[in-house]
Amino acid sequence: MAARGRIASFRLPPLPTIREIIKLYNLRAEKQLSQNFLLDLRLTDKIVRQAGNLRNAYVCEVGPGPGGITRSILNSGVAELLVVEKDTRFIPGLQLMAEAAPGKIRIVHGDILTYNMERAFPKQFRNEWEIGLPNVHIIGNLPFSVSTPLIIKWLENVANRDGPFVFGRTQMILTFQKEVAERLTASTSSRQRSRLSVMSQYLCNVKSCFTIPGRAFVPKPKIDVGVVRITPLERPQINQPFKLVEKVVRCAFSFRRKHCRRGLE
Description:
The chain is α/β, with parallel strands linked by helices. The protein is built from 9 helices and 9 strands.
């Protein structure tokens, strides 16, 4: 058994580098899709290590793109990796990896916002909510345009224990714009405290892992990127329906801080 937090001994056979894959399939990051490629495999390994020991785990990767994080996940010794990719251009490169790791990777060409995550893995991998964490994980370098609506959708899934959380308290390792990551993890005394802070922290343990400088991405975004670990709590901090909490919090933060009382009224 590999030590926790370290890449396991399984390795992919020699493959073209991510840069070579990009050149081979003439891939370009689409600005309108907020795409930025992470090519440094030391950084993709570091992202994957935040999930702990993934040996024999079941992982869903969101938006794998040219497959940098995908390689790091496969090298961690997972039992199975499901990748959900909306952009058709990336499918051939992912198929190349699937051929190099037979039986390890499933490719879904679709939109993660509409994909039914309850079908991601067999029912036998479901775990009781209160009995530890399931051996199921979500990892993704999220496009900036998708990250906020996706995490709000998943937070509602946490509250209802459906979607990817039918398997139990599925842990997520996700990237966000640094500003969004700071809002997700902001404490009650922080000036970054926001609607997103309350909505995420009343349902989950949210931890900032590390920051990736924008220069590490291709093309280089104008901002840095934060890696965040999100783990559902056994019990929510607020025992009320998600829609009600969301409405109250939205109203509270719709006014400036000194006038938030008016929003609550």
